[in-house]
Amino acid sequence: MTEALSSTPKVWQHRNRNQQLLSWFLWLTGTAIFMYCWQMISESTTWFFVWDAPRIAADIGSRMIPPRWSYISELLEPLWDTINIATIGTMLAILMAVPVAFLAARNTTPSTKFVRPIALLIIVSSRSINSLIWALLLVSIIGPGVVAGIVAISLRSIGFISKLLYEAIEEIDKDQVEAISATGASGLQKLIYGIFPQILPAFAGISVFRWDINIRESTVLGYVGAGGIGLQLNASLNVLAWPQVTLILILILLTVIFSEWVSAKVRHAII
Amino acid sequence: MVTSPNSVTSEIQSTSLPKSWAPPPFIKNPILRWGLMLGLVLYLYLSVGMLEVNWTRIYEGLDRGAKFVFGFMNPNFAGRWSDISEGIIESLMMTVTSTVIGIAISIPIGFGAASNLAPLPIYLFCRAIIALSRSFQEIIVAILFVAIFGFGPLAGVLTLSFASIGFLSKLLAEDIESMDKSQAEAVKATGSPWWQWINYGVQPQIMPRLIGLSLYRLDINFRESAVVGLVGAGGIGATLNTAFDRYEYDTAAAILILIIGIVMLSEYISGYIRAGVQ
């Protein structure tokens, strides 16, 4: 205290010297890594095409307008397929994700040493792999079509739904479950009357949220042959029919806005 | 049956207790509840009925499915190691580059999209950019960027940066909107100019969240970088696609295991960093 009073006032600093050095060092390392990565990417880029890009973009833009509205008659069925892929896929995912979530939650799993790690592995594998890659795999196994899309969407969604659901299960109020078990309820009854009512709002919210995401993802699954509107997108791109591409993009945009609106409404009603 | 508390007490008063109890329904309005159920049944009937399932094809495919599962048990890392390592390294580089570019662009847009900082025209403009970036899947953007910028990782980097903007700016803007006003006001009361107000009043409040979000986005960008390769935008996706096309399931399994492993590792590290920051 006396030292602070006697010496000349120090200029205020956010960090002390060591922290400052550490932060500079981290910034330096980060910048060096970024520059190195950028250099590598720059080396494998044909810069001639990039300098040419504005002209190409303008060219494609001019070809995309106006959209070919008459093409819509061929798009309604794929659009219906797309919505089905997302909806049925989400339902299948829920069926598979609920047991996984109960096995993964610390307070409901039968064994934290053996069952829980397996459930967590299922969740991580499902989440790490994009639905498009699942679709690629399933198309090569069960053939192209809507079924491959549905299975891909459901496999991809398991991880997401299970993860959020098991977090909700871990946060439940224990007293309610205890009250139910004090009446002499069996394990199943505890589950139905003690735990289910507590996680139901979260569960409904998660399901609708995932359905919204699945609508977005299912619009592109057709690109690898798994049915839906992506199939038409791929076909139109292959023949460079840009006016059709525009129409498909507009349709996808409208579908996404619609699903987001529905999911926002439902989540608003629940919470 | 809907049992309200009133009806229960009145029943208790009238000699006999109810013999059975049912939990209250989740959706209270019976018309809405039964309507939704009926709609669901009708929808399932229509959609599943129209599903064309080629059972013989699926049956034939089971063989290949078993082969894939077998491939997962015995992943073949060595066979195409040079292709795999090249693809993974390229994916990692794309991830780093696109996340850095994404953060750099989304910070100003995030500030612009916060209704308590930005004037209305800027707010609307930034919100429009966010909406545009969030509406289209990475893969669609990648297709367009490959057409415009040519094949290669640059198209992938631009795609992922573009996708990061929507994600980061939106969440950042929400965080700025819910910040503590009094701190920012205190800095303003010292007579600081605008940039000092942002730097000392607003930035320290959102920094932990920004770091958390950036790490999360780094994860997502790595996963997505595996996908944009399918349309020629660089990364491991092209190798994966080739492996599937040639029915080399052991190589494909090796790639998928690598992706899962890297995602797990990065989730673990980012969880560690986030716990330290917050």
In short:
The complex is a heterodimer of chains A (271) and B (278). Chain A has helices spanning 2-6, 17-43, 47-51, 53-64, 76-104, 115-128, 131-142, 146-170, 174-182, 187-221, 229-238, 242-270.
Identify the biggest protein-protein contact and residues per side.
A-B, 55 and 59 residues
Quantity of strands of chain A, as a count: 0
Shape of chain B: extended
* CATH fold type of chain A: MetI-like fold
N to C succession of SSEs of chain B: HHHHHHHHHHH
Give me the CATH fold name of chain B.
MetI-like fold
Any low-confidence stretches of chain A, pLDDT <50, length ≥5?
none
Radius of gyration of chain B: 27 Å
The sequence of SSEs of chain A as H and E is: HHHHHHHHHHHH
Tally the helices of chain A: what do you get?
12
Poorly predicted ranges of chain B: none
Domain count of chain B: the total is 1
In terms of structural class, how would the helical and strand content of chain A be classed? mainly alpha
Number of helices of chain B: 11
Multimeric state of these chains?
Answer: heterodimer
Specify the helix fraction band of chain B: over 70%
Helix content of chain A: over 70%
The CATH architecture term of chain A is Orthogonal Bundle
**CATH domain class name of chain B:** Mainly Alpha
Mean pLDDT of chain B: 84
Please characterize this protein's 3D structure.
The model of chain A has no long low-confidence stretch (mean pLDDT 86). The longest helix of chain A is centred in the C-terminal third of the chain and has 35 residues, at 187-221. With 271 residues, chain A is mainly alpha-helical. In chain A, helix 7 (131-142) packs across helix 8. Chain A has helices spanning 2-6, 17-43, 47-51, 53-64, 76-104, 115-128, 131-142, 146-170, 174-182, 187-221, 229-238, 242-270. Chain A starts with a helix and ends with a helix. In chain B, 78% of the residues lie in helices and 0% in strands. Chain B has helices at residues 5-13, 30-50, 55-73, 81-112, 120-135, 138-149, 153-177, 181-189, 194-228, 237-245, 249-277. The two termini of chain B are 48 Å apart. Chain B has 278 residues and is mainly α. In chain B, helix 8 (181-189) crosses helix 9. Chain B is built from 11 helices and no strands. At the A-B interface, helix 2, helix 4, helix 5, helix 6 and helix 7 of A face helix 2, helix 3, helix 4, helix 6 and helix 7 of B.
